[in-house]
Amino acid sequence: MRRFEVEMNDLKNRLMDMSGLVQEMIKTAIFGLVNRDSKLFSMVFSLEKEVNIQEIVVDDKCLKLIALNQPVSGDLRFITSAMKINSDLERMADEAVNISGRAVNLLKYPELKPLVDIPKMSDIVQQMLADSIRAFNTTDAELAKTVLVKDDEVDDLLKKLTSDLKDYMIKSTDFETIQRAVDLMFIARSIERIGDHATNISEDVIFMVHGKDVRHPRAHVFKAEQQSHSDEGNTD
Amino acid sequence: MRRFEVEMNDLKNRLMDMSGLVQEMIKTAIFGLVNRDSKLFSMVFSLEKEVNIQEIVVDDKCLKLIALNQPVSGDLRFITSAMKINSDLERMADEAVNISGRAVNLLKYPELKPLVDIPKMSDIVQQMLADSIRAFNTTDAELAKTVLVKDDEVDDLLKKLTSDLKDYMIKSTDFETIQRAVDLMFIARSIERIGDHATNISEDVIFMVHGKDVRHPRAHVFKAEQQSHSDEGNTD
Description:
Two copies of one chain form a homodimer.
Chain A: H1 3-34, H2 41-69, H3 73-106, H4 117-137, H5 141-171, H6 175-210, H7 217-228, H8 232-235
């Protein structure tokens, strides 16, 4: 194997390792919340430090790969996609930390209500993350596309959960209930953000495989229209 | 001027234009909220489409600049930083849309309370964005550093505002008050996120200028420690 291929493989393995850490963080944060086990959160906080290190190492590796090898087309798209996936993974880790921070608050009080929708939402986004990373690993654009459709399901669960929590708030006049409902609302929002990042990763995989940007579907129509009315299409 | 320099200049100008759109979106969203003028939000929604187009165009331009010119060191850092700033700008535009969406809800009801801290927070993050972009435009790492310290101020305001809003919720048992407090809480969170993105941009500028990664200050210590205990430092 050429040195360049060895390095590209190493980059992929590093991102796979990093995504393993992030998946562990999310799983642990939700498990700690659902099972009311506050000992687990320290693991999340400690794994975040490792993810932060990896983010810097991966970015540095990507820059060196470009500078030393002048990759083009597919290889270049792989490296710039890796940089973006790197950033999304780090932001997912931040959300796992946010969830754990809120959960630390929550576990000081009795359970507000069975957390039915939180585990359900989190199962979906964890599957989205696992699939988006598997799609990256196997350059499987079709698998990446299946992630995109799940995002709506998560949004619907978030709406339902937010509405339920507002009902709790209306019925209560004590600090504890309001505090717990607010914490749960922000936890649900963090879970939804993790789903958004998995969506970003899947879009990057599709771009990496096909060289076709699938972000902002309607933007392409506008772009095409704009370019047909100007000379811009020729200069880019 | 060489063709490469012309293209690099064009890339910078495009990001400056894009940041102008995003600044306009944020300003308009907050102005519409504070002055209770719901007609303004349609402008925010319409500018988002333009930002989405620009994001794709800028990314495409960055890839072509790398593929066709094989830039190294400072030039390469400029282009990869541009890709990251591009992504942060687009996510700020999303937050301006989130703020406007919540504000549309809010304006259906009478004002909950004078929004003292919201305009104050938003003034700070707008200044952070303006400074981070000016630092990018003038490659001024010192200016970028001034942005990083303001993030704490925003976090403090968010805490205070969240706490005030929880007090409103505790005192109320009607749907309207809870709804308004929740909307304001999420608006405050969006404003804080805009500050986070301005911080990201400033970190990118410092990296671009000095080639030194200032993200996750403590991560570097860990990285250094880790590398001194392994051979990893030699392979990157």
